[in-house]
Amino acid sequence: MRPPPSIEGRDRRRALALAAPALLWTLVFFALPFGVMAVLSLWQRTDQGLQAAWTLANYAQFLNSPAYLQAALNSLEITVVVTVLSVALAYPLAWIIAVELPPRFRRLALALAVVPFWTSYVVRSYAWSLVLAKRGVLNGWLGDLGLPLLDLANSRAATVIGFTHFFTMLLTLTIYASLVQLPPNLRRAAADLGAGPLQIFRFVVWPLALPGVMVGAFLTFALCIGDYVTPQILGGGNDLALPQLVMLQIGRRADLPMAAALSIILMAAVTLAYLCMARWMKAPAP
Amino acid sequence: MKTTTRLLAVLAGTTLLTQAAAAQEKQLNALVWCDHTDEALIKPFEDKFGMKVNLKEYEGTGAALSLIEQSQPGDWDVLVVDGIDVPRVVEAGILGPLPTDQLPYDSLFPELVMEENHVIDGKTYAISEKFGYNTVSYNSAVISPDDLADMTRLWSDKAPGSIAVYDYYLPVIGMVAKGLGLHTDEITMEDLPAIEEALMKLKDNASLVGEVVASQTAIATGEVDILFGGGEWVTAGLTADLPDLDWLIPEQGAVRWSQSIGVFADSKQPDLAVEFVKHVLSPAGQAALATSSCYWAMPANSMAGAMMTDAQKDALRWDQQTDYLNKTELYPAPDAELDAAMQDVWTRFLAR
């Protein structure tokens, strides 16, 4: 006679069944394409088409080409600046919504924060290009006020502004989600124990809200470093970024192996960023 | 029979009927440039043959080759491709021969027959359908044409205005080569350092390097005064609203681009595909293609003029084509090694 299935075994099977769709999704839409891309990065494009060369030549070409390295450096610099700026702008905004605003206005404030997401990403970038243009909206205002005009269009500054506008709103949501969960009693208790506002922020609020900040910062980093549209439209071709280099390989050279190698390098940068930030993404132990 | 089983049976039957109906509807799959997507060009053909044309837009021959490599044989019927890349795609076995006796060679502009590109081993694989010039567009309200007569000023210390550069390496390298006194079909590896030096100075003077839309937007909004690598394809469609936009061919000359159309070697319906090519090359098809909403340019078939208004022909400078054709050369058609070197130069130009 077969022994009855243990409760533990049944729970394990049930957990596996529940997780199966997510695992299947990850396998089909991430692991498998990633594997194909990794393999492809070891191939070579020749006059005869794609050749399974099994070589690291594409990676060597990246390391030996100053233009490719410059593109990677440009991407990293833009991404770091955008991430830092977005956190710096989003934190106070999230604080105001979560703490300072009366609860009845929070929903409206959050709705306003997500308004930028309602428009197409491409349209938003083109809109910024018109705002920042030499004869655009911004310079129109500055001219009316008798102030010197700015030469922001088609520059790294324009790319950073376009990115920061988008990611500040994204970060505001993740930071807000962390801040709104903090019990107000914690701040009151710290104040009762003699802590000043700066100390309360530094020793109570900041550590507890840090996971939300870091999750948002990581999302910003990952989305920003892999973005092609904004540098293409707002950068004016003056600051070649790594995703643009990937597109050059595909659109001009039909060199999928080199594009795959560059994409792997891009993913390595994102993975490295994750490893650096992961320790702060966890919620603090109770 | 249980209700569920009946439902499944009905569903299966409906699916089979839908698939059969879809299979019966004729469809043509064309890999094209954006100027082929206007209803004015496609609908008359669909109505005539009672079928649907599926259009897939692409930019750059590299992108087309990637798409074709990822497709199954027989997926595609018609290919629109850069005229200079026809030998490359024929060598890859992508295009099949065309029935030349059915195509309007008699009325093509002679310079657009381009046998050296379209005829390989005695067989014709493609035919020109549209052409234009990569030269210099400018805002005549700000810039005098005299300032642009010598294109080398654009990469000197005395650039006459704010400059955008069209982001496509072949025509721009061809233009710079013309500026340096070279012929586009004679560019060698030894010429690249001088071309690169001029390009880098041009980049220093330029405020923008952009593709079609970005270039058009920049000159249309006054962001720049000059578009190096531009031409009638930038200005012709905008002249009604922006009459100050103009273009010229500098004294050193300029480069000419052309696009060709052909039928896939493994098309499952080559006869219908040839009919589509004939439609695009017909005077009406050519007039629609020439004034496409994506970009305007000269039709290869000179008979299209009868189907176009005077204003349209003026915008394309129909009557000056003989002069322009004489002053321009096809843009470079490098072999694989030179092409790779040119792209490396362009990557460094973009990264500067």
TrEMBL record, chain A:
Family annotation (Pfam families): BPD_transp_1
CDD domains in the record: TM_PBP2
Record has Ubl conjugation as a keyword: no
Transmembrane ranges? Answer: 21-43, 78-101, 108-127, 157-179, 200-223, 256-277
Keywords annotated in UniProt: Cell membrane, Membrane, Transmembrane, Transmembrane helix, Transport
How would you describe this protein's topology in the membrane? Multi-pass membrane protein
- Record's PROSITE patterns? ABC_TM1
Subcellular compartments: Cell membrane
ABC transmembrane type-1 domain residues: 72-277
Any one biological process term the GO annotation gives: transmembrane transport
The terms describing its cellular component in GO are: plasma membrane
On the tree of life, the source organism's domain of life is Bacteria
| Coarse class of the protein's main subcellular location | membrane
Gene3D superfamilies attached here?
MetI-like (1.10.3720.10)
Q: Which PANTHER family match?
A: ABC TRANSPORTER PERMEASE PROTEIN, INNER MEMBRANE ABC TRANSPORTER PERMEASE PROTEIN YDCU-RELATED-RELATED
As for family, the record states: Belongs to the binding-protein-dependent transport system permease family. CysTW subfamily.
Its name, as the record gives it, is ABC transmembrane type-1 domain-containing protein
From TrEMBL, chain B:
The record, for PANTHER family, names:
SPERMIDINE/PUTRESCINE-BINDING PERIPLASMIC PROTEIN (PTHR30222), SPERMIDINE_PUTRESCINE-BINDING PERIPLASMIC PROTEIN (PTHR30222:SF17)
In its keyword annotation, does this UniProt entry include rRNA processing?
Answer: no
Please report a single Pfam family linked to this protein: SBP_bac_8
Q: What is this protein called?
A: ABC transporter substrate-binding protein
Sorted alphabetically, the Gene Ontology cellular component annotations on this record are: periplasmic space
Highest taxon, organism lineage:
Bacteria
Molecular function per GO: polyamine binding
Q: Where in the cell is it found?
A: Periplasm
Leader sequence residues: 1-22
Picking any one GO biological process from the record gives: polyamine transport
**Gene3D superfamilies from the xrefs?**
Periplasmic binding protein-like II (3.40.190.10)
Write the record's keywords in alphabetical order, separated by commas.
Periplasm, Signal, Transport
Chief subcellular location equals periplasm
Q: What species was this sequence derived from?
A: Puniceibacterium antarcticum
